[in-house]
Amino acid sequence: MEAFGLLLHGFAVLLTWKTLLLMMVGLVLGIFVGVLPGLGGPNGVAILLPLTFTMDPTSAIVMLSCIYWGALFGGAITSILFNIPGEAWSVATTFDGYPMAQQGRAAEALTAAFTSSFIGSLVAVLLITFLAPMISSFALKFGPPEFFAVYLLTFCSFVGLGREAKHKTVISMSLGLLLAGVGMDTVSGQLRMTFGSAELLRGINFLVAVIGLFGISEILLTMEERLALRGHAAGISLRVVLSVWKDLPKYWMTLLRSSFIGCWLGITPGGAIAASFMGYNLAKRFSKDPESFGKGRIEGVFAPETAAHASGTSALLPMLALGIPGSGTAAILLGGLMVWGLNPGPLLFVEHKDFVWGLIASMYLGNVVGLVLVLTTVPIFASILRVPFAAVAPMIVVSCAIGAYAIQNAMFDIWLMLGFGVVGYVFKKISIPLAPFTLALVLGNRAEDAFRLSMIGSGGDMTVFWSNGLVGTITTLAIVLLFWPLIDRAFAGLTRLVRPARA
Amino acid sequence: MGQFAKITAAIAAILFSTPAFAWEPTKPVEIVVAAGAGGASDQMARMMQAAIQKNNLMKQPMVVSLKGGASGAEALMYMKSSQGDPNKVLIAYSLIYMLPLSAKIPFNWRDLTPVSVIALDQFVLWDNASGPKTVKDFIAAAKAASAPFKMGGTGSKREDNVLTVFMEQKTGAKFSYLPYKSGGEAATQLVGGHIESNVNNPSENLEVWRAGQVRALCVFDKERISYKTKVTDTQSWNDIPTCKEEGLDVQYLMLRAMFLPGKVTHEEQAFYVDLFQKVTQTPEYKDYMERQALKPIFLTGKDMIQFLEDDDKQNATLMNEAGFVAK
User: Fold this and answer.
1) Cβ contacts (< 8 Å) between A460 and chain B: which residues?
2) Topology agreement, domain B22-121+254-322 and domain B124-239
3) DUF112 domain: which residues (chain A) (predicted)?
């Protein structure tokens, strides 16, 4: 078993005191940002990314991915104790988690959340372990048309499968694509939309945009709502943990279903948010007692948490093997890889074995260490929320500013970040989703280059996107997904037509 | 007593260490790279940083500062705006002539202070290991191809693109030039068979060449690369014929040179000329040159200016002929 040998090699790379220490630091930082309202996974990773620039890539990515695991765990704490989802994908966790806390079963809910996070991630990591070697040989088949088809698939699935209003997704995505065009155009070698400004030469860095869009805008919103942070005290005793674990086998179907949904949506770029809702909804649909959901049912915590974490973890696979991020945080990690000169893609698995398998091994270790850490430190992290918002908010803003500045050592980026903060605030007010905007900003340039290179290569012939089985399948799938809502309705219409005929 | 010894040592250091120069850096020196992380310029900067530190060539530390935005234009504008600051030194390559022409970047290398030319970069014509085996067959295949014959390279209207046009002029063959973000990407795409050839620098294709996935057809220089140590199982850099030997009379080299911002003093300039002269003597530098198959050279003062003027003229002519100059 090749994968197994490589994995052991990965553990060997990892098991040094320095790496283990970084892992712990990463996890604690991650839980910290996960607990703070307005921060969370993507923002936490974005802000802490420059801190890792001086490290070697393996240590850096191990630390970052641990921040990511930590944030995933931390997000659940606020959802359950305070009804504040630290992350968009923790929203579904609040449905039953917060009622449980109100009934004084907070410890039970937290244990359930952490345990299911662990199970979801573990299933996804197993998947990555055994799929990764196959993906690397497959990926050499990717030329410009194939790359464009995949980007198209990503964009189309956001439009077709997203829960938000279609036109709003398209607006958000178009704005992102527009801003992605600022700076030097690789294909023509010309500057675009820089208006003679030396600051705009660099283009708009998506990390700066992300910190503003998510971090700053969340602070603005919280200020406006005068959010009172009233928390429920929580302590976890071993007895509660064991009793929850004893009941686990009863919910094997829910856990399995959610893991599957999570992995599938993580690899195709549906994302953790969709996965958590889908996991929750399906658990409810298949339950014998759907009425009890939303009133503090432990299954309502298991289902979304497992799905969100399976998806968050498996999103790293397309990011590493193909350079396509399956989630917002994966997109930021992708930027990080490029900073270290590691080009995500097929050859990453060939050229940087140490790095890739070190990362995969760190997913196993990080999850185990994370579970223990989080179960023991809940009371401490919950106490952060007793610090007045007036004291926490400036600290968050300062850390955002440092993060934005450090990316390119440019003062201009801080102004840009603040600008994006306002944009993010407005977007949230008029409920335009931010994810398509970020996605377009990250992938816009690459999608454009891939399209234009395909056109140069084929002499302007559009059929190049159906020139072989691989690219043809992806392109067709993309178009199907784009029109999915219509197709879905057509199917529903058909079934309705067929049914009366039978009756 | 300890205090006294320290002071004596400090005075001694001041008196004897750098007797020839009135100036030396008082702050950490920033080495500005006009490319992204991991690229050839970045690697060169890190080599210099290591060479200077290990051989104690300078008291102040050296930090690498990546300014690869807008294909390196960011670094040029940064140097231009740092007039009079002797703590910044740029690793330049032919983008200093090309970017102002192709993208109308308001920059002229004559605004900076030249220090020294430290290396020349080679270009090699590569094709896939399953492609034509000689330059002659390769050109014939390009001429006979019905679909576009694809040549990959780094960026648009830059060295690789200019060289492709140069080859078209000499052979009459027609290539479709595909600009990628980096030489590494062009290498992967050649291995995957998505392009027929590329004109990567030796270092950019080194790994895939060693893996036997690509073939080196010829080197665009008057003479063969001098390094004779085996790189692949059967070949050394020296085994690659020149393009002229193979009947394709095209030569093209790219400079790698150090510049200070404009308006620095002669003493400041002299310090760096001496520093980089010493760097070229270090084992780190020599090792790096061989590993990357770079051509050794050291020019400074009048020789350097003459070289730059000639090189600028040649590049401008090529850019004009190719129609790459923005109006």
Assistant:
1) none
2) yes
3) 20-438
| Of B32 and A225, the one with more pLDDT | B32
A to B CB pairs, distance under 8 Å: 100
* B69/A202 Cβ within 8 A: yes
Residues of A with Cβ-Cβ distance to B189 under 8 angstroms = 143-144
Which of B76, B156, B194 to mutate to probe the A interface, most A CBs <10 Å? B194
Reference B325, options B97, B103, B162; nearest CA is B103
Phi, psi at A234, each rounded to 5°:
-145, 135
pLDDT tens for B237-290 read 999 999 999 999 999 999 999 999 999 999 999 999 999 999 999 998 998 899
CA B89 to chain centroid: 15
pTM across the whole model: 0.74
Q: CATH fold of B22-121+254-322, please? A: D-Maltodextrin-Binding Protein; domain 2 (3.40.190)
> Crossing angle, helix A17-35 and helix A41-48, to 10 degrees?
130
A260–B contact, CB cutoff 8 A: no
Which pLDDT score, from 0 to 100, does residue A398 have?
81
More confident residue, B138 or A242: B138
Residues A39, A88: contact at Cβ < 8 Å?
no
How far is A333 from A61, CA to CA, in rounded Å?
8
Helices A144-161 and A435-458: angle between axes, nearest 10 degrees: 150
Using CB atoms, pick whichever of A144, A188, A194 lies closest to residue B156. A188
Is the CB of A339 inside 8 Å of chain B's CB atoms? yes
Q: What is the DSSP letter of A347?
A: H
SS (H, E, C) A96-140: HHHHHHHCCCHHHHHHHHHHHHHHHHHHHHHHHHHHHHHHHHHHH
State residue A440's pLDDT score.
Answer: 83
Q: Which helix (H) or strand (E) holds A192?
A: strand A191-192
Higher-scoring residue by pLDDT: A271, A286: A286
Domain ranges of chain A: 2-233+245-502
Residues of chain B where predicted confidence (pLDDT) is lower than 70: 1-21, 37-39
DSSP, residue by residue, B19-44? TT-S---SSPEEEEESS-TTSHHHHH
Candidates A186, A342, A345; nearest CB to B156: A186
Inter-chain contact A453–B180, Cβ cutoff 8 Å? yes
How far does the CA of residue B312 sit from the closest CA of chain A (Å)? 19
The residue ranges of every structural domain in chain B are: 22-121+254-322, 124-239
Query: Does the structure show a pLDDT above 50 at A503?
Result: no
Question: Does the interface ipTM go beyond 0.85?
Answer: no
So what CATH class is B124-239?
A: alpha beta
Question: CA-nearest residue of chain B to A204?
Answer: B69
The 10s digit of each residue's pLDDT in A53-99 is: 667 777 877 887 788 788 777 777 777 877 666 566 677 787 888 88
Q: What residues of B are in contact with residue A182 (Cβ under 8 Å)?
A: none
